[in-house]
Amino acid sequence: MELTGLVLWLLCLLLLMLMEVSFAALSPSGINYEVVALMGIKNNLVDPHNVLENWDSNSVDPCSWRMITCTPDGYVSAFRGLPSQNLSGTLSPWIGNLTNLQSVLLQNNDISGRIPAAIGSLEKLQTLDLSSNTFSGEIPSSFGGLKNLNYLRLNNNSLTGACPQSLSNIGGLTLVDLSYNNLSGSFPRISARTLKIVGNPLICGPKESNCSTVLPEPLSFPPDALRGQPDSGKKGHHVAVAFGASFGAAFVVVIVVAFLVWWRYRHNQQIFFDVNEQYDPEVRLGHLKRFSFKELRAATNHFNSKNILGRGGFGIVYKASLNDGSIVAVKRLKDYNAAGGEIQFQTEVETISLAVHRNLLRLCGFCSTQNERLLVYPYMSNGSVASRLKDYIHGQPALDWTRRKRIALGTARGLVYLHEQCDPKIIHRDVKAANILLDEDFEAVVGDFGLAKLLDHRDSHVTTAVRGTVGHIAPEYLSTGQSSEKTDVFGFGILLLELITGHKAVDFGRAANQKGVMLDWVKKLHHDGRLSQMVDKDIKDNFVMVELEEMVQVALLCTQFNPSYRPKMSEVLKMLEGDGLAERWEASHKVETPRFRSCENPPQRYSDYIEESSLIVEAMELSGPR
Fold first, then answer.
1. What DSSP character marks residue 49?
2. Of 139, 142, 267, 503, which sits with the fewest C-beta atoms within 10 Å of its C-beta?
3. For 291-313, what is each residue's pLDDT tens digit?
4. What is the fold of 32-204?
5. Is the backbone peptide bond immediately before 424 cis, with ω within 30 degrees of 0?
6. Which CATH class is domain 385-620?
């Protein structure tokens, strides 16, 4: 019996070693196969600034890593924050194992070698930007399999050979930029609204006469086009594992696998351990409580995915129950400024906590350790405006016309406080329905107003680090990367349109005639005198036409392309309260909008700014409630 036990023990040990390599493919409860893929990518890159420092092969949760965005069900969906990081080396074919990737942003680095053909297997990929690197070789023909691709940027590399004919198989492309390479041969018929191939002398000739850019076609935006929600998809990976063994050995394998699942589960509960908690958790900074990491870990049930309230560009928000029974929301920041240190973080948190207003989300406390930054807020029982726009209560819209007007006024008051009553002023930089929360009385509460200040100073030298959400970003911000309080005014104008229409600001649907920018659509309806057609159909006829017209006018004043023509938020608040709108609206029609952008023919539609901006793909990754 002892000999048999020893044999079984040795067999278990051997299987442990083997399973350490392959367990990722067997179960997310064990070694995450996405961790293996990401480590393969990291190992092939040269990272002089250690931006990938916390990518750890021992981790089972890559969603907590810097520069990584995940789907709500916990799979890697995007690389973000990696542009302009001086990365070199090569891009590993391991990227093809991240089967839920929707966006890859690696532009403005010095990555060389061939573009992995494995990228062509990423069926969910929507954005691929490898521009301004030193990639060489041919464009993989496998790219023809990227049926969901919207944006393809391979410009400013050293790519050679013919552009693959397979790219003509992709329908619905918004932008393809292959300019400034060394491509040759015949060029396929690529179905893209914008196609750029200049700077390829073997195709275009020395005078570029054959390479005029394909201009964007007009966007159409049917009123019901945005009703559907994108299919989040399910993760399906089928792995066949063959063991040439007897029935008894197979039984042992089952036992070992069960043991590994249990061991990995227990291990997963401990990955958040942080030794840097040498303080009294009752210590307060001003009115802020400093929580211990252990306390918040327990309050969220070890950051259990069942407690996730939302994910966004700055981190994941969890519902938490504290020791005293109170319910709070805990935001676990994913891209904190490690170089700044804990003292700087605490100082900035305390400064932001001084911004107290009934229409601003109050910061209750925080946790700061060597490896973690967490913020604690009151729990908002009615969620966000975005989450309630389509909800019903007792057969009636949760947000009727009266509540939507109150939300607009409350949000405006919160922004007035940030812009004009805080010293120094605070610019939100992502005003949208998903970031306006609702308390138990459906009063608007502006959330995340300080996170741009907390986290973006590490990018202060990079003017192209656009923060925001597609469709809400002001044109001058897209053009220059520089923001001001007038960018918040633009975002507020788009928020008003969200409240009126019940639609998202931009829809990047796959079907034909379902791509559009709400601002352009509203302007068209307003010009044609068809205001009632833009009102959310859930409201039906339960709105006041005069109030609708006034709100649309305020929204259009806020979203003027020239920032100097937009009103201040204090002026916006007065107009919403019925003071000065008529005069401001009349005056706006007497001034010709100057060409504030450095181009001969500035775009006349907001969608044109989105098409032209080289920064928009970065901003796309910050979409979602934060």
1. T
2. 267
3. 999 999 999 999 998 999 887 66
4. 3.80.10
5. yes
6. mainly alpha
